[in-house]
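Notes from the 1:1 (GR / supervisor)

We went over the backlog. Supervisor wanted to see one worked example end to end before approving the batch request, so GR pasted a single chain during the call. The sequence is below; no edits were made to it. Supervisor asked that the structure be written out right there so they could see what the output format looks like.
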Amino acid sequence: MTEGRLVAIWGRQEWGGEMRSFPGGNLVTGKGLTEDVSFGSRRQVTIIEEEVWTSIMKELESDLPGSTRRANLMIRGIRLRETKGKVLRIGDCRIEIVGETKPCASMDEKLPGLKEALKPHWNGGVFGSVIDGGKIKVGDLVGWEISE
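Structure output shown during the call:
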C-alpha cells in the first residue's frame, strides 16, 4: 500500500474567515473537523495534495501557501484524482471521499489564473465524510483503505 503523510491542518472560525494552522485536530464521525466553521456541513472535510499545489504555484510563478486553497487538510504522497467512493485513512481515522472540490472565483482574487489551474484533474482537491473520527496530527500516515 502506498503511504503518504498529513502535512497540514487548517480551519477557520467563520465563513470567509482567515485559515488558521493547527498541529493537530479532531475529526468527528458524520460531522467533520471541529476546528473549522464547516463542521456539520455537507463538505465535512476538504483535502488537497501538496504535490499538486506546489506544481500549480510553480506554473503560476507564485509562492502562496497551501492554506490559500482554503482546504482543511494537505497530504503528501497520495493521489486524490477520481477517488470518489474510496476510503482514506489518516492515522486511526477514516474518511470516505464524496467528490471533487471545485474551485470558486475567490481563488482568482488571491492569484489571477488560480481558479483555472485548479479545475482539471481534480487539482482543487476532494471533500469527504468522516466515517471513523478521532485525533489527527501533522505527520500522521495517510493511505487508501483496500477493500476485501
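Supervisor's comment: The chain has one domain: 3-144.
Batch request approved.
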